[in-house]
Design brief:
- The protein is α+β, with helices and mostly antiparallel strands and about 220 residues long.
- The chain has one domain (about 25-195): Jelly Rolls (Sandwich), CATH 2.60.120.
- About 20% of the residues lie in helices and about 35% in strands.
- The protein has helices spanning about 1-20, 195-220, and strands spanning about 25-35, 45-50, 60, 65, 90-95, 100-105, 110-120, 125-130, 135-140, 155-165, 170-175, 180-195.
- The strands form two sheets. Strands 1, 2, 4, 5, 7, 10 and 12 form a seven-stranded antiparallel sheet that branches. Strands 3-6-11-8-9 form a five-stranded antiparallel sheet, with no helix packed on it.
- Strand 8 and strand 9 (about 135-140) form a beta hairpin.
- Helix 1 packs across helix 2 (about 195-220).
- The longest helix is centred in the C-terminal third of the chain and has 25 residues, at about 195-220.
- The chain is elongated.
- The two termini are about 30 Å apart.
C-alpha cells in the first residue's frame, strides 16, 4: 500500500510539474537603473551570487568569469548607472558562440530571479529552464522589456526583475550568438526546495481524507 501511495504521489508530482511548465508565463516585471548589489526591491529575493564571495550553497554557475575592469578598456564590469570607470569585482562575461549557465542544485528551484545586465545588446539570449521540463527564451530587447531603446551602450546598466507566474525554474542559460559578449553580475532571487515524493503523498492523502469527511457529512445530513 505504501509503495503504491508513493508511486501515485510521484506520478501526481510529475503531472503538477509538467502543468507548471506548460502554463509558465515568465515576463519582465520591472527594471532599475544601476543597483548592482541591492537592496533587492519588492521582496524579490536576496543576493545569491555575485561571482566574488556571496553565494547561496544551493546554486552554481558554469561559464566564463572575468576580473574587472577589462584590460585595455574603460568598460566597466559591467557598467554601473552611467559610469564606465569599472571596479575590481568579478563578473560573468559570456563570449561569442558560447553560453553560461546559472542553476540550482538537484532538489531545489528558483521562484524569483533578478540580475544586473551591463551594456544590453540585441543579440543576447536568456533561456529559463523549468522544473519538470520545458523552457522559455527571451532574445534581444525582450530580455529587459524592450526599454531603454538602443543596445550596446556601455554606459547602460540595469537590474532586471522577472515574474515567473508561478513557474519553478531550475536553470538559466545566457547566450550571445556569434558576436561580442553578454556581461552580467549580482544575481538575486529566492531558492526553494522541491517537495519530496513522501510530502506529496501526505498532501494527497490529506486531500483525500478531507474529501471523504465531506462526503460522510453530506451523507449523514441526508
Amino acid at each position: 500500500m505504501k509503495i503504491r501511495t508513493l508511486a501515485a504521489a510521484s506520478a501526481a508530482f510529475g503531472i503538477l510539474a509538467a502543468a507548471s511548465a506548460a502554463n509558465a508565463a515568465i515576463s519582465v516585471n520591472y527594471i532599475e537603473e544601476g543597483n548592482l548589489f541591492g537592496p533587492i526591491a519588492g521582496g524579490q529575493g536576496v543576493m545569491i551570487y555575485d561571482f566574488d564571495a556571496i553565494a547561496d550553497p544551493n546554486v552554481a554557475y558554469v561559464g566564463n568569469v572575468l576580473q574587472g575592469p577589462q584590460t585595455g578598456s574603460t568598460s566597466a564590469s559591467p557598467p554601473y548607472g552611467g559610469s564606465v570607470t569599472g571596479d575590481n569585482t568579478k563578473y560573468a562575461s559570456v563570449q561569442e558562440s558560447t553560453t553560461g549557465t546559472f542553476s540550482t542544485l538537484p532538489g531545489f528551484y528558483l521562484s524569483t530571479f533578478s540580475f544586473y545586465l551591463g551594456s544590453p545588446d540585441s543579440y543576447n539570449t536568456l533561456t529559463f529552464n523549468l522544473l519538470g521540463g520545458g523552457s522559455q527564451t527571451f532574445t534581444g530587447e525582450d530580455i529587459w522589456g524592450g526599454s531603454p531603446a538602443g543596445t550596446g551602450d556601455r554606459t547602460l546598466g540595469y537590474r532586471v526583475y522577472y515574474d515567473f507566474g508561478g513557474a519553478k525554474v531550475t536553470s538559466i542559460t545566457f547566450g550571445t550568438g556569434d558576436t561580442n559578449a553578454f556581461e552580467f553580475d549580482g544575481i538575486a532571487g529566492n531558492v526553494a526546495m522541491v517537495p519530496e515524493p513522501g510530502t506529496w503523498a501526505l498532501m494527497i492523502m490529506g486531500f483525500g481524507g478531507a474529501g471523504a469527511m465531506l462526503r460522510r457529512r453530506k451523507a449523514a445530513l441526508a
